[in-house]
Amino acid sequence: MFASVDIGAAQTACALATGAGQMVAERTIPTLAHEGPDAVLNRVASAIGDMALAAGQRLLAVGVGVPGLADFHRGRALFLPNLPAGWRDLPVTDRLSAKLSCPVFLLNDARMAALGELWFGHGRNAKTMVVFTVGTGIGGGVVIDRRLRLGPLGAAGEVGHQTILPDGPLCGCGNRGCLETLASGPALVGEATRLLKSGHAPHLYDMVNGDADKITPRLMTQAAAAGDSSVREAIVRAGRFLGIGVSNVITVLNPELVVVGGELAAVGPLLIDTVRREVRERVRLFPVEKVRIETSALEDKAGLWGGIALAIARVKQPAGPPTPEGI
Ligand SMILES: [Zn+2]
């Protein structure tokens, strides 16, 4: 049996799967990150330990995703901006491996989702693909010749931190005008909040009873459909920025496939069609009709599937340590 763990700021998803990639059990537990990494990892270990026990199977390997910078080759979390302190340079794989008595492998959560898309999603038949995971932040992963590109740390593929506006908003990474500051969930909701408070979003106002804290990208889509043209424009603007980011990556790699996943993929055609249109307008050097741009088929489980893929890949292809070229 192989296990997958996707650690999020609020919730941690766990899954168990066979070596053939069949998911047999799933469980979501609260992360309770304020209790510190030891408590979080203890809870993770007992959850998947219990699941393996219930399945009557021995664990062969575990893939773990964390929301932030992680050193894949050393199995250490480096910087997790959405979790409280205590994770810096933490040997996550050693800690979990000691508790579970099996190998554990660590990846950034968006990279793990990209691996999920490659093995189990739209990427099953693709050789070259790029994944954009658009949620609280914008992460991603780059696949070349069916290998997820890692780079020296496992940090390659940070497509959300490409500069789109030279003097744009300050990003969490320290740069200005990153794609993440313009097209992530918080960027979109922030713009809707401004519109709601300035009286430009009457339908959205009714949907949340005037409470801006209740705005979600999905509600924004409903408000746009109900007639809030300013909300519609905000979604289209975010889609154009995302489309510019996707165009830049297509220009560099000419992949067969781009997958847009994460919370914002649920916005649907208004966003993804804008991305497709922007790509057709921006990429002029070569034909892009054959570059498929799809929303994720795995939705919020791409990371879980990726953890299973990571665990299986590292056990079945253990020809030495993986290189920066990828898994
Ligand atoms: Zn950035």
Account of the protein in words:
The structure is a single chain. Helix content is 39%, strand content 19%. It has 327 residues and is of the alpha/beta class. It has 2 domains: 2-109 and 310-316, ATPase, nucleotide binding domain (Nucleotidyltransferase, domain 5, 2-Layer Sandwich), CATH 3.30.420; 122-297, Nucleotidyltransferase, domain 5. The protein has 10 helices and 12 strands. It has a 5-stranded mixed sheet with strand order 3-2-1-4-7. A 5-stranded mixed sheet has the order 10-9-8-11-12, sandwiched between helices. The two termini are 20 Å apart. It is globular. Zinc ion is lined by residues 161, 171, 173, 175, 178, 180.
Features of this protein?
Nucleotidyltransferase, domain 5; alpha/beta; 5-stranded mixed β-sheet; binds zinc ion; about 325 residues
Please state the CA-atom Rg, rounded to the nearest Å.
20 Å
Helix content: 25-40%
What separation lies between the terminal Cα atoms?
20 Å
What order do the strands of the largest sheet run in, or round the barrel if closed?
A: 3-2-1-4-7
User: In percent terms, what proportion of residues is strand?
Assistant: 15-25%
Mean of all residue-level pLDDT scores: 94
Show the helix and strand layout.
Layout: E1 2-7, E2 11-17, E3 23-30, H1 37-55, E4 61-66, E5 69-71, E6 76-79, H2 92-100, E7 104-108, H3 109-120, E8 129-134, E9 138-144, E10 147-148, H4 179-183, H5 185-197, H6 202-207, H7 217-226, H8 229-253, E11 257-261, H9 269-282, E12 292-295, H10 302-316
Parallel strand pairs: 1-4, 4-7, 8-11, 11-12
Antiparallel strand pairs: 1-2, 2-3, 5-6, 8-9, 9-10
Helix pairs in contact: 1-2, 3-10, 5-8, 7-8, 8-9
This protein binds zinc ion.
